[in-house]
Automatic annotation (TrEMBL):
The lineage of its organism: Bacteria, Thermotogati, Deinococcota, Deinococci, Deinococcales. The keyword Iron-sulfur does not apply. It comes from the Bacteria. The chain holds residues 12 to 324 of 542 of the full protein. Keywords: Amino-acid biosynthesis, NAD, Oxidoreductase, Serine biosynthesis. One of its GO terms (molecular function) is NAD binding. Belongs to the D-isomer specific 2-hydroxyacid dehydrogenase family. One of its GO terms (biological process) is L-serine biosynthetic process. This is D-3-phosphoglycerate dehydrogenase. It is an enzyme of class 1 (oxidoreductase). Catalyzes the reversible oxidation of 3-phospho-D-glycerate to 3-phosphonooxypyruvate, the first step of the phosphorylated L-serine biosynthesis pathway. Also catalyzes the reversible oxidation of 2-hydroxyglutarate to 2-oxoglutarate. Its EC number is 1.1.1.95. Pathway: Amino-acid biosynthesis; L-serine biosynthesis; L-serine from 3-phospho-D-glycerate: step 1/3. It catalyses: (2R)-3-phosphoglycerate + NAD(+) = 3-phosphooxypyruvate + NADH + H(+); (R)-2-hydroxyglutarate + NAD(+) = 2-oxoglutarate + NADH + H(+).
Length: 313
């Protein structure tokens, strides 16, 4: 280990495990206010975040010259300005696998919750209304469409098959043999997928290509009575279009774990949309996932600070 301790700041909530690593000083500050992060950063060699902290030019400028590594405790790096990091020679690492099961399980939960009107029934019952008129839909023998058959999408496919759903996916970046191995049918285009399915879930990163990918036109291609789940990133399914499709009754229901702006404004239209289940970006929030994420990202960042950059994001 180096003789002068290398310093790491963890500014978002996670379970970083044992922080005593010889040669390193790791400060864990679960939910550090942004101004504090900016103020303290110049004293650190590495910063570890989750999706809450925006790693943008302002933050990098505040950090100064010492910062060499950014660790993202999770999968998506859309909160990090990768170009600005690379211009400053800062290595960006993530923990691409540790929370995949948790994220997939949350997506399946949202599908089931929407199919059975969970949030509606919960709200009405608490308000004193014993409504047994609501009719849900069974999942068995229906078709689930998955956009993005990566690590998380593949787990969703497996769990959905366990529920006896037929699974079709659209992912131009995944080879044919992966579809075969997973027993998932391949849709050649997004439109082909949308017209074929009863339920839709998205599992892509947020990029210029996927932002707004499911808008009003795409939602209209879904069968009437479809269910849409977005547990990936806010904005992949356009928020206004989703509210409109729920309000018009074209969609049976939806589940979202992510918003374009997090936390959402108190008057966000999602909060009043019918049969829309909401969670607060909790896909990765299980004890197991956060233990794995914390251990993996700390290990990767420390290894990178030692000069082992061979496993970059
Ligand atoms: C991810 O991209 O892995 C999640 O958004 C992690 C998180 O909850 O920060």
């Amino acid at each position: 280990p180096p003789t002068v301790p290398l310093r790491v700041l963890i500014c978002d909530e996670m379970n970083p495990g044992d922080l005593s690593h010889p040669g390193f000083e790791i400060d864990y500050e679960g939910n550090l206010p942004r101004e504090e992060t900016l103020r303290r950063l110049p004293g650190y060699d590495a910063l570890i975040t989750r999706s809450r902290t925006r790693v943008d030019r302002e933050l990098l400028a505040a950090a100064g010259e010492r910062l060499r590594v950014i660790g993202r405790g999770g999968v998506g790096v859309d909160n990090i300005d990768l170009e600005a990091c690379s211009r400053r020679g800062i290595l960006v690492l993530n923990a691409p696998e540790s929370n995949n099961v948790s994220a997939a399980e949350l997506a399946v939960m949202h599908l089931m919750a929407a199919a059975r009107g969970l949030t509606r029934s919960d709200r009405l019952t608490r308000a004193g209304e014993w409504d047994r008129k609501f009719l849900g839909v069974e999942l068995k023998d229906r078709t689930l469409g998955i956009v993005g058959l990566g690590r998380i999408g593949s787990i969703v496919a497996d769990r959905a098959q366990g529920l006896r759903l037929r699974v079709v996916a659209f992912d131009p970046y995944v080879p044919e043999n992966k579809f075969e191995r997973l027993g998932v049918e391949r849709a050649a285009t997004l439109d082909e997928l949308l017209t074929a399915v009863d339920f839709l879930t998205v599992h892509t990163p947020l990029t210029d290509e996927t932002r707004g990918m499911i808008g009003a036109r795409e939602l209209a291609l879904l069968k009437p009575g479809a269910i849409v789940v977005n547990a990936a990133r806010g904005g992949i399914v356009e928020e206004g279009a989703l509210v409109e499709a729920l309000t018009s009754g074209h969609l049976f229901g939806a589940g979202v774990d992510v918003f374009v702006e997090e936390p959402p404004a108190p008057d966000h239209p999602f909060l009043h949309a019918p049969n829309l289940g909401i969670t607060a970006h909790l896909g990765a929030n299980t004890r197991e996932a956060q233990e794995r994420v914390g251990a993996e990202i700390v290990e990767r960042v420390l290894a990178a600070l030692h000069g082992d950059v061979s496993r970059g994001a």
